[in-house]
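We were asked to recover a plausible sequence for a given structure. The inputs and outputs are reproduced exactly as logged, with field labels preserved.

PROBLEM: sequence recovery
POSITIONS: 427
GIVEN STRUCTURE:
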């Protein structure tokens, strides 16, 4: 068994879906699980639906939902001989949104969010499964909620590995006797109470990795709009090179620091079973891509990872007591409570500074909770730059036009928190 994952960009419209069908047909991968994300930017559009509901009410949500529906219908029409049937198949998912919201008392945003936003994946997979059948492949559609079981931490479900492995093994073995291709949703799971959960934005790569682990897959491929893993994000940098081979260790470090090309939770499960992960281009499917495996490569070029929208949070004791172990453990308990992710940290005698995502709401709650014991100052609008395998030339180039507020060098990794140099007008 092999696992393929197609992200939003690869299924954004009718033409892209045809391309996905062509890739599946021509790569001859044998028995295949195909994990698919919502079409294009549809997840953001579903977020608008839930936010319209919370801010304005059901009618506004319904209007936002109409746009999402029209988008899907517009892309279905050119794909099928009998588009009516496919439209009929996806409508119940859209209707489930309205029936869920009309009975919601708006007390649990995260739970409501998951019931709404997951529909992007249900719709896209119905369309793709139907297209694969139409081009003559023995494909079926699987509701991923039957197999991926999580806890009830909505929007960030934690996988119950024991249950999930058991369900995947039994259900997929039975399905693969009858079908060559099993199409299912990325990003989605099910809580013990039977509600839909999601695994965190961009979580479809992780779904593919869960299937690969549970099925002891021969290999996993994720199909992207880039030739493979590059030495930086092509949306930010020019003159990048493709990295042909990457160790699991290097890949987990890159994604942990925020390389947007793979979700950070993806690497562990496949590393644990030594399953090779191939990052390939859906634009040039014959290209060799990047192979991630246990193989060790000692010579990597400098790799740059940029996280913008960061804040530096300076926390200092009010009574001049040292920031010692008991303070740190308390601070970390509070960070966990508010889901504040520490991207970088440093302490002095009476202060502790972290770099984290600049989420105003979270940071305000954090400030409030810390206020009695600590003074908290937040610097907004920062960028966190990480360079693996850095050299001075690359670092100097990156610092141009920036003020460096914070810098740390380890043997393989340099991190700096920077701000753009403000333009000062002379009188
Ligand atoms: P998906 O369609 O699977 O959701 P994403 O858009 O999330 O794919 O990820 C692919 C994008 O990741 C690329 O278009 C590229 O802009 C970005 N990216 C960031 N860092 C890298 C990198 N080091 N190598 C390649 N792509 C990168
Ligand atoms: N559709 C989800 C998102 O956009 C999950 C994914 O694409 O990986 O976040
Ligand atoms: Mg994505």
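RECOVERED SEQUENCE:
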């Amino acid at each position: 068994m092999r696992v393929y994952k197609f992200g939003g960009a690869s299924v954004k419209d009718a033409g892209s879906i045809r391309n996905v069908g062509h890739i599946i047909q021509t790569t001859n991968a044998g028995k295949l699980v195909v994990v698919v994300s919502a079409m294009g930017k549809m997840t953001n559009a579903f977020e608008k639906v839930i936010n319209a509901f919370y801010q304005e009410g059901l009618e506004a949500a319904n209007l936002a939902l109409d746009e999402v529906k029209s988008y899907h219908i517009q892309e279905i029409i050119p794909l099928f001989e009998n588009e009516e049937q496919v439209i009929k198949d996806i409508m119940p998912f859209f209707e489930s949104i309205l029936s869920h919201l009309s009975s919601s008392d708006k007390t649990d945003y995260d739970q409501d969010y998951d019931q709404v936003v997951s529909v992007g994946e249900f719709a896209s997979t119905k369309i793709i499964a139907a297209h694969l059948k139409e081009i003559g492949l023995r494909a079926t559609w699987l509701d991923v909620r039957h197999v991926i079981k999580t806890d009830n931490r909505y929007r960030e479900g934690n996988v119950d590995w024991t249950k999930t492995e058991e369900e995947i093994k039994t259900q997929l073995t039975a399905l693969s006797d009858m079908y060559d291709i099993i199409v299912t949703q990325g990003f989605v799971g099910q809580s013990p109470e039977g509600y839909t959960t999601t695994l965190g934005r961009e979580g479809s790569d992780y779904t593919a990795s869960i299937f690969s682990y549970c099925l002891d897959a021969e290999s996993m491929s994720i199909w992207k709009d880039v030739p493979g893993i590059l030495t930086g994000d092509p949306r930010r940098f020019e003159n990048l090179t493709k990295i042909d081979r990457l160790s699991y260790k290097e890949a987990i470090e890159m994604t942990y620091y925020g390389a947007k090309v793979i979700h950070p939770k993806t690497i562990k499960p496949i590393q644990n079973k030594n399953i090779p992960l191939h990052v390939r281009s859906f634009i040039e499917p014959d290209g060799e891509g990047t192979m991630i495996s246990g193989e060790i490569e000692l010579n990597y070029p400098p790799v740059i990872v940029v996280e913008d929208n960061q804040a530096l949070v300076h926390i200092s004791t009010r009574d001049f007591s040292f920031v010692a172990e008991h303070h740190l453990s308390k601070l970390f308990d509070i960070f966990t409570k508010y889901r504040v992710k520490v991207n970088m940290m440093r302490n002095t005698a009476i202060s502790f500074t972290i770099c984290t995502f600049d989420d105003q709401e979270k940071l305000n709650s954090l400030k409030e909770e810390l206020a009695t014991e600590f003074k908290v100052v937040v610097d907004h609008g920062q960028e966190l730059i990480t360079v693996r395998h850095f050299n001075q030339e690359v670092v100097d180039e990156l610092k141009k036009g920036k003020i460096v507020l914070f810098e740390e060098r380890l043997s393989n990794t340099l991190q700096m928190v920077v701000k753009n140099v403000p333009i000062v007008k002379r009188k």
